[in-house]
Design goal:
Order of helices and strands: HHHHHHHHH
Shape: globular
Distance between the termini: 26 Å
Oligomer: single chain
Family: Belongs to the AhpD family.
Organism: Chelatococcus albus
CATH topology: AhpD-like
Strand content: under 5%
CATH architecture: Up-down Bundle
Number of strands: 0
InterPro entries: AhpD, AhpD-like, AhpD_core, CMD-like
Largest sheet: none
EC number: 1.11.1.28
CATH superfamily: AhpD-like
Radius of gyration: 17 Å
Number of domains: 1
Function: Antioxidant protein with alkyl hydroperoxidase activity. Required for the reduction of the AhpC active site cysteine residues and for the regeneration of the AhpC enzyme activity.
Length: 179
Amino acid sequence: MSFDSLKAKIPDFAKDVRLNLSSMAQDETLPVQQKYGLFLACGIATRNADVMAACEAEARPHLNPAALDAARAAASIMAMNNVYYRFVHLASNKEYGTLPAKLRMNVIANPGVEKVDFELWSLAVSAINGCGMCIDAHEKVLKEAGVPASTVQTAVRFAAIIQSAAVALEAAGATARAA
């Protein structure tokens, strides 16, 4: 499924989502690997099969196998980390923050692609998953690497658009099932 097929499934109540998907796909402000890795990592983070398939179809022609796996790894590792570190951040008992996480995260140190790309994908997935602690940690690494705020903003904008497509599809499905 391509973005065009995905846009065709987006209901009329979410026409802004279709427009945003189009503008996102045409955006050329990011390097190719960053852009398409974002599509894939964020698509996976939505947990919506149609969105995942469309993002994979868009990314596959532009990413080598290592980059495809790294984007998948960013979504997977952040699924784990975002739950854990969101808990640590939100728990009233601050003792949890002093305990070792005991979670394997080797891929963060050796993602198989440029560190900045992986960090950007991890930040965008963390935005979808709502983990402020992870957002801050990845944004700090990106800032220290000289990544401009506009690039970070673009990554999070892409995450928001991709997530909104999943929500629109889910809402349309719920409406259809209720009818």
